[in-house]
Amino acid sequence: MCAMQHFEKTLSEEYFYKGAIINLRRDRVELENGAEANREIVEHPGGVCVVALTDQNEVLFVNQFRYPYHKMVREIPAGKLSRGEDPFECGKRELQEETGATAGRYTFLGDFYPSPGYCEEIIRIYLAEELTFGSQNLDEDEFLDVERMPLEQAVQLVLENQIEDGKTQAGLLKAYLLVSRREKA
Fold this sequence. Notes:
2 domains, Nucleoside Triphosphate Pyrophosphohydrolase, single chain, 3-stranded antiparallel sheet, globular, alpha+beta, 4-stranded mixed sheet
């Protein structure tokens, strides 16, 4: 736990871009010592990701091309929140749309801050279990492949840096610890 509470006071906000997914702004802030500084912020409505675990302890992944990296990226199902949308409902929707799966049981695993130095995005992480399968319902601009992998193997790939996506790493490690603790109890 922190011994002190540090703070910065917002003096002004200036927007440079307002888009469909993100807004970009520069804030002028007063530091706790009275000095002033600039803070560049990416506004994002947040997202949800779901570690979907089958009865055989397999994780569902989606493999899709991610333009910023110009390559395929292995991720757990995830999606962007609409402004004001309930994160749990978003997670259920994204799981079904991307993998065709619905879950009988969900467990909230916590929040993930992908880049707290400049982005206010928060990703909510859920574990989905007791899966049943139907058909995918992808968005018309969404192209992905679904893959299953044993949870233990997926965690090993995280440790070997073969799964690079941060939300996927956090979700897998949290799910693995929770499932391991349940098995020991």
